[in-house]
Amino acid sequence: MSSLWHRLEPLLPQVSKPARYIGAEDGMRVPHHGPGVVSWLLTYPDTYEIGLPNQGLQILYEILNERPDAAAERAYAPWGDLEALMRAEGLPLFSLDTHRPAPLFDVIAFNLSAELIYTNVLNCIDLAGVAVRAASRHDSDPLIGAGGHCTYNPEPLADFLDFAVLGDGEEAVGDITAVVADWKASGRPGGRSGVLRALARVPGVYVPSMYEVTYDGARLVAVEPRHPDVPAVVEKRTVADLADWPYPKQQLVPLTEVVHDRLNVEVFRGCTRGCRFCQAGMITRPVRERPAEQVRTMVGEGLRRTGYDEVALTSLSTADFSGIERVVADTVNDAGCSQVSVSLPSLRVDAFTVGIAAQIQRARRTGLTFAPEAGTWRMRQVINKLITNDDLYSAVESAYSQGWRRTKLYFLTGLPTETDSDTLAIAELARNCVALGRTHTRSPSVTVSVGGFVPKPFTPFQWFGQNTVVELRRKIGLLRDDLRRARGVQLKWHDPAASLAEGLASRGDRRVGAVIEHVWRHGGTFQEWSEHFDLDRWQSAAEACGVDIDAYVHRHRTFDEVLPWDHLSAGLHKDFLWQDWRDALNEVGLEDCRWTPCYDCGACTGYGIEHVVASAVPPAGGSQGTGVDLSRGGEIPVRLLERSPEAERMGRDPATGASEAVARAARERSEQERETPRVGESDSHAPARRQPVGAAR
Amino acid sequence: MTGSRIRLRFSKHGKVRFTSHRDVARIWERSLRRAAVPVVYSAGFSPRPRIAFGLALPTGYSSDAEYLDAEIDPAWMAGIDNERLVGALTASLPTGMTALAAAGIASGEPSLQHAVTSCTWRIDAAGADATEASDAVSRAMDGSELLVQRERKGRVTIDDIRPAVHAVEVQGNITDGVRLIAELATQPRAVRPAELLASLRPPLSLLRACRLHQWITTDAGERSEPLAVSELSVVGAGVEP
Hints:
The complex is a heterodimer of chains A (697) and B (241). With 697 residues, chain A is α/β, with parallel strands linked by helices. Chain A folds into 4 domains: 5-235, Rossmann fold (3-Layer(aba) Sandwich), CATH 3.40.50; 262-346, Transcription Regulator spoIIAA (2-Layer Sandwich); 361-494, TIM Barrel (Alpha-Beta Barrel), CATH 3.20.20.70; 591-697, no CATH class. Chain A has 23 helices and 19 strands. In chain A, helix 10 links the parallel strand 13 (310-314) and strand 14 (341-343). In chain A, helix 9 packs parallel to helix 10. Chain A starts with a helix and ends with a helix. With 241 residues, chain B is of the alpha+beta class. Chain B has 2 domains: 4-113, Pseudouridine synthase I, catalytic domain, N-terminal subdomain (Alpha-Beta Plaits, 2-Layer Sandwich); 117-225, no CATH class. In chain B, strands 1, 2, 3, 4, 5, 8, 9, 10 and 11 form a 9-stranded mixed beta sheet that branches. In chain B, strands 6-7 form a two-stranded antiparallel sheet. In chain B, strand 2 and strand 3 (62-72) form a beta hairpin. Chain B is elongated. The chains are: A alpha/beta (697), B alpha+beta (241). At the A-B interface, helix 9 of A face helix 1 of B.
C-alpha cells in the first residue's frame, strides 16, 4: 500500500477545512488494485465541496468499482493553502479514498462541467507530476482523460488531454477499461501511442493527437484523422434506457458540508423542450425517463441508508416527468417521516409546478425560483423558452397565494436579437410580480438574477457572436437604473467579465489551449471563483499567444465555416441546428418533440434510440407556448408556430397567415410520419409510445 | 412534542477528527435517522431536530469524551435497551466515531454547556524532552499568572489562563516529543491545549491532543463525568485506529 496519509496528516491542521481531504465517506468503496486491474483516478477539478455531489463522477465510480478489471478512486482540486504545502513538501495530487499518489494510477479522468475550470485541470495534471502537454508525456505516465458536457468541444484542451469521452459515460468507461487492460496485459504494445490508437477506435472516445488540424491563416480549415482506422467523426455515447443504470446505488455521504448536501435521484436524462441557449438540452437527447417504481425504490432506500432528510429529484426539468405528482406524493408519504423534504431543482414556470412545490414544501416556504430567461414573449420565442407572461404571472400568483413570500427569477441577457426594450421588459415583469404578490402578502420580494449569455457548441446559437463585456455591463446597467426605485425588487448579477473567458474556452479551437496554459502558468486557478478571476490575465494571455478574442467570441459565425467541433457529434444534424437558428431569428417557436412528431434532429434516428417516456401526452401546466390553458394536462395538443420553409423564404410577415403555412407543413409532416417506420419502434421496454399528437388533431 | 432526554457519549479518532463541530452535528443528525431513533423536531417555520451538543472540540483534536443530549419520542424511549442503542448508533456513525454510552437524563438537568467545568486532555507536544517540559510546567504552575496572547474579533488581547490550568503532569517521552496530561477549565471560557503549550517558557508546539474526560464539578467540589463509561471501554476507544 502506498498511502500518502502519514505525510498529509501533519499538514492538515495548517489548512482551512481539512475535512475535505480525508475521504472516509459513507458509500466509499475499498479499491482492489493489482495486476490486471485498470486503476482510475476520477478527478473533479474544483474543490471537494463543489465536486463531491457530482452525480456523473459518482456513477462512474460505482460502475468501475463493480468491474473485476477496474478500480476507481476520487480526487478533487486542493485549495490554495494545501496546494502550497503540497508543492513545498513534494506531495503529489492524491486520491481521497486511500490517499494513493495520482502518478500511480493508469488513468486520471477529469469531469469537465464548466469551461472556467480548465486551468484547474492543468494544475491538477501538474500536481499529479505529469507533463501538462500530452506530447511531452512518458509511456509510464497515467493517461489523462476527460468527460462531461464540456467535452463536446474539447479542442481548447486538446493539447493537454490524451482522450475525451463524448456523452454518457456508463458504457464507455467499461470499453476504455477493457482496451487499457488488454494493452497492459499484452506488454503495452506500441507504448503510449499504441493504447491511444486503440482508444480512438472506441465509440465515443476522441483522441486529439490522432487528428491533424489545418489552418489557413486565422481560419480553421479542417480537423482530420491521421490514420484510416481513426473515425472522421466521433459520435457521442447514449445509454438507451436509464432503467438499466440505477446509479449511484450508494451515494457518497460526505462528512463535511458540500453543495447539494442531500440525496439526489436522477428521474430522467435529456430534455427536448428545445431551449436554444441550453447546451445540456441539446446534447443529452433523447428524453429517457427512469421508471417511477425505480425512482421510488432509489428514494426510499437512499433515504434509509444515508440518513438524509432531503431528496432532490433531478433532471433538466423535473415537472415534465410523467406522473410527477404521483411520484412526489409517494415520496413524501413513503418516507414515513414528515420531516423529509423533496426538492425539484429546476422548476417549470407555471402554476401546476407551484402546486407540486406546495405539496412537498409544507414547511419552509421561503423562496421559489423560476427561470423565464427573457423579458418578452418575442425574446422567449427566439430562445424557444415557450412560456407566456401569463404563465409566469400565474406561477408567481400561485406561489404568493400559497404562502411563499419571495420569488427569484433567472434571466439571461445578451441573447440573439435582444433589444433594450427586451432587457427593460425584465424590470417590468419583476415589478408586475411584486404587484401580484402584494395582493397576498404585505412585503413580497422578487429577486431578479441576470447572467450574461455565452453561446455553446451544438446549440442553434453556436453561430451567434457573443455580446461584449462592455455591452453586457451596459444592459445590466439599464436594468439597475430602471429598478433603482422599484420597491420589493432586488437585482443581482455577476460581473460579466468571466463570460468572456467562458466564451473563449467554450467555442475555441486548439490555439486557445495556449491561452489557458498561459493563464494557468500566471497563477490563474479556481477561475470559477469570482475572487480569483481576473479578466486582465485572460486578455494579456490572449495577446501574448496571438489569439484574437473577437474572432472567437464576438464574431457571428457563418454556416459554411468549419467549427472547431465539426469532427465531433452530439447526434444533432448541423442542418437541424442551422434551421433552428434561422427559426430563432424569425421568432418561430418549436414544440417539444417528446409529445409531438419527430423533427429528425438526429439524436434518436442517428443512433437507433428513442424517447423513453411513460406518458404519451404532455404533463399539465401552463400554456406551453400555445396561449391555451393547459393546466389540466395534455388534453389539448401542443401546437405552436412551427418551422416553415415558406415563412422563411417569404420573410416573416406577421400580418399574413404564417400559421396557415405552418399548419400545412405540419399536415405534410404528419403524413410522412405515419408512412415512415420509426427506428426502434419495436423496443419492448419503451412504455406508452407517443402518437403524433400535435399533428393528428 | 416534548421528548425524553437522552445523553450520549462518543469518541472521535483517526481521519474523522478533522471534521468540525458543525460537521459532527450534521453527522449525528444523519446517524440518528439511520439508526431510526425518533428524535423530536422543533416546532415553527424551520423544524430542526432537538439535539444539543456540548463543548466544541477543536477541529483536528481527537476525543474519548464527546457528548450530546437529544430529545427522543418518549414512547420509543420507554422501550429502549441502552446497550443495543449504543451498538446501533456506532454502526450508523462513520469510521472513527464510536458511541460509548447512553442514558436517559432528567428534563431539569442543566445543559452540557453549562454543567461542564473542566476537561482532561492528553497532549502530545514537540519542542522539549520530558525533563525540559517538566521544568517548564513547574515554572508555569508556580507562577502567579500565565499569559497568552489571542486575537478576538480582530483585537489582540492578553489573557491570564493560570486560574484555568487545574493540573499538568508530564507523562514522559514519546517518539516524536513529549506527552502531557492536563486538566483545563472550560468556564468562563474553555482553554485549549494549544494555548497551554504556547504559554510555557519555552513554548511547546502541539502534535496531537485528545480529550479524555469532561468533568462536572459541584459547588461542594465533587467531580463527576456527564456519563461515565467503564475504564475498559475508554481504554479500548482510546486506541488510535
